From TrEMBL:
Leader sequence segment: none
EC number assigned by the record: 2.5.1.54
Gene Ontology terms, MF aspect: 3-deoxy-7-phosphoheptulonate synthase activity
Keyword Iron part of the UniProt annotation: no
The protein's name in its UniProt record: Phospho-2-dehydro-3-deoxyheptonate aldolase
SUPFAM superfamilies (UniProt xref): Aldolase
InterPro entries, per database record: Aldolase_TIM (IPR013785), DAHP_synth_2 (IPR002480)
Pfam families: DAHP_synth_2 (PF01474)
Keywords: Amino-acid biosynthesis, Aromatic amino acid biosynthesis, Transferase
Organism listed in the record: Kineosporia succinea
NCBIfam families: DAHP_synth_II (TIGR01358)
Class of the enzyme per the UniProt entry, highest EC level: transferase
Record Gene3D superfamilies: Aldolase class I
Catalytic activity reported: D-erythrose 4-phosphate + phosphoenolpyruvate + H2O = 7-phospho-2-dehydro-3-deoxy-D-arabino-heptonate + phosphate
Length: 466
């Protein structure tokens, strides 16, 4: 799983300087989306300013390298074959203010803990993919928000406008795109430092649990960490090779929503002569922007990164095949991840026909489960929330359907944070409607807190062992 990164060469850093006709055609293809309908784009007040920012973004260094995206693609192909499991997680919307060392470290620790629970419980390598270092823009159900008779543009994520309900803050500002790039860069730098610099060493398995409040899930984790410690000491004493345990791969991902940003960070890789989106290792197309003839599907169909697409409850087998034909015409293993997000009440009814289709067509697509977005509701006290039990029921349904059809339940896509927030109801702490107000911090969708995330990992490890 942990193949070495390819050595970084000047070819990674500079686009091709001698465009031949094929390269020129590829480059031109990257702008076809501009003539297509593009859903969920902000109304920038000053187009010229946006263009100046996009030109600047087109010249900044890449955040990720093409060779890394290729490695991730290979790992996702293994997950699609049932030889690995994908854990994709992070905030619904990252914010600039919370891109701090503590918050980032807590999220990484939580993901590392979840991954170790899954790896240990299911004897399966776990691919760690953050919804991190770029998740700064959001699709919205309404373009405007009205409070006490005042109507302003809806908050669309820190890459576009500010959350405070004031005209100046809610007006889209292209300079925020530059801040999104630089904050992604510093976040990714910290991720690389933590995961390559010793912190992710499996010998730190106890350390990842420190600083979190004690809870049943943490106690269960401690017990498992003791077992892992013993096993590692045995391995070391027996002269086993533990080098592979020192570092982990931790990849970045976000929704490829803001096309001016995504395009500016899409470059022709001179090693292969093909385009890569160098803003993240993995990008996905959301449920609201996956129109077959739309701009998002067109741009993402042209990049070589592994990509995902959300598959909601209204998707028919025919819609699915048309999306697959556009996004993965070569049927390349690891290229396309199908992220089902049906809702607990719908998954058992709606997923079987889709899974049957990918099976019948022999597609190498990786199916993963987003058990969050189909289970959102407003609580009696007015908070946007989700019930832990609904989330787990959707995951259980996902496993049941794939096991019945004979396809692979290959991973999870979760909104989570490493902090002890109170945004989702239930879990071992029994967070109820009255508790939501205690620490409700998300600016967008409710996230599992640290304990709920660990609990989920223990439950999913049991599902994986069947
Ligand atoms: C999201 O992932 O935050 C999101 C908006 O999801 P979806 O596109 O599935 O609604
Ligand atoms: Mn969300």
């Amino acid at each position: 799983m942990s193949a070495p990164l390819h050595p970084i060469t000047s070819a990674d850093l500079y686009p091709t300087s001698t465009p031949d006709t094929a390269a020129a055609a590829l480059e031109a293809g990257l702008d076809v989306w501009r003539d297509l309908p593009a859903a969920q784009q902000p109304e920038w007040p000053d187009r010229a300013e946006l263009e100046a920012v996009a030109a600047e973004l087109a010249s900044v260094p890449p955040l990720v390298f093409a060779g890394e995206c290729d490695l991730l693609r290979g790992q996702l192909a293994a997950a699609a074959r049932g030889e690995a499991f994908l854990l994709q997680g992070g905030d619904c919307a990252e914010t600039f203010a919370e891109a701090t060392a503590d918050r980032i470290r807590n999220k990484i620790k939580t993901m590392l803990q979840m991954a170790v629970v899954l790896t240990y419980g299911a004897s399966m390598p776990v691919i760690k993919l953050g919804r991190m270092a770029g998740q700064y823009s959001k699709p919205r159900s309404s373009t405007q928000e009205t409070r006490q008779g005042v109507t302003l543009p809806a908050y669309r994520g820190d890459a576009i406008n500010g959350f405070p309900f004031e005209e100046a803050s809610r007006t889209p500002d292209p300079k925020r795109l530059l801040k999104a790039y630089h904050t992604s860069s510093s976040t990714l730098n910290l991720i690389r430092a933590f995961t390559k610099g010793g912190f992710a060493d499996l010998r730190q398995v106890h350390e990842w649990n420190r600083g979190f409040v004690s809870s049943p899930a943490n106690a269960r984790y401690e017990a498992m960490a003791r077992d892992i410690d013993r096993a590692m000491k045995f391995m070391i004493a027996a002269g086993g090779d533990t080098d592979a345990l020192r570092t982990v791969d931790f990849w970045s991902s976000h929704e490829g929503l803001l096309l001016d940003y995504e395009r500016a960070l899409t470059r022709i890789d001179s090693r292969t002569g093909t385009p890569y989106n160098v803003s993240a290792h993995f990008v996905w197309i959301g449920e609201r922007t996956r129109q077959l003839d739309g701009a998002h599907v067109d741009l993402m169909s042209r990049v070589r990164n592994p990509i995902g697409v959300k598959i909601g409850p209204t998707t028919t087998p025919d819609d699915l095949m048309k999306l697959v034909d556009k996004l993965d015409p070569e049927r390349e293993p690891g290229r396309l991840t199908l992220v089902s997000r049906m809702g607990a009440g719908k998954i058992r009814g709606n997923l079987p026909a889709l899974a049957e289709t990918t099976k019948k067509e022999g597609l190498p697509a990786l199916w993963i489960c987003d058990p969050m977005h189909g289970n959102t509701f407003e609580s009696a006290s007015g908070f946007k929330t989700r019930r832990f039990d609904d989330v787990m029921d959707e995951v259980r349904g996902f496993f049941e359907v794939h096991n019945a059809v004979g396809t692979v339940p290959g991973g999870l896509h979760v909104e989570l944070t490493g902090d002890d927030v109170t945004e989702c109801m239930g879990g071992a702490e029994h967070i109820d409607d009255a508790d939501l107000a205690t620490r409700y911090e998300t600016l967008c969708d409710p996230r599992l807190n640290h304990q709920q995330s660990l609990e989920m990992a223990f439950l999913v490890a049991e599902m994986l062992t069947g």
